[in-house]
Amino acid sequence: MRALTLVALLLAAPLPATAQRVVSLNLCTDQYLLALAPQKATAVTFLARDPELSAMATAAATVPTVRADAEAVLALHPDLVLAGRWGARATLDALARRGVAIERIDPPADFPAIRATTLALGARLGATARAAALLAEMDATLAALPPPTHQPAIALEPRGYSAGPGSLRAAVLDAAGLENAGDGSQLSLEALAARPAVLLVLAPPPPFPSRATEFLSHPLLAHHRRRTVPAALTICGGPWTARAVAQLAR
Fold it and tell me: Is the pTM of this model over 0.85?
């Protein structure tokens, strides 16, 4: 229902006459802008260039970055600014007072919402054909998955937090044919060790020592099966998230 509301709101809003200079102030909208209409990307956040966080890091490498500062954004003369629902509120309010068109986007938490967001932003950016192509590729990836195994799995965040129901990572587990055994709580080493049959779904280990993930190397977890999925595919939901599902389901 939320996804349908998002589509209705975006498509009902008046389109800028010439949305050719688009600035993004959010990691999720960075990626949608770069995927749908890179030629219109006037600036994105610096996070878009980080391959650990962004599925569109390569495309972002040649796009200027901007901080969430009203003066910095106004200097770029955008005719449309994309942003998250809650971040950069003071900056967005200042831009709105100057008459800049703004779209605030909720991060999609499942594949229906990804579809709705892709279609809505495709329409807003004048990239409906590109949106359709991205969704066709997503659908083909999901349609090619093997039969579900329903194996219990826990998608772990740093410090042992599990992906609970209603989260994007839970939707990824479900699409991959796994059973989400997480509830969103922080799981102790002992709690995980007591469930050796559970598949642990993790981001690739960082290239530096981290206390947030060091518990995973404990001998008590040595016999747990593990699969890694790049965090960049699941931090922000988009058509690219189907690749995370394919990696888990193979």
Answer: yes
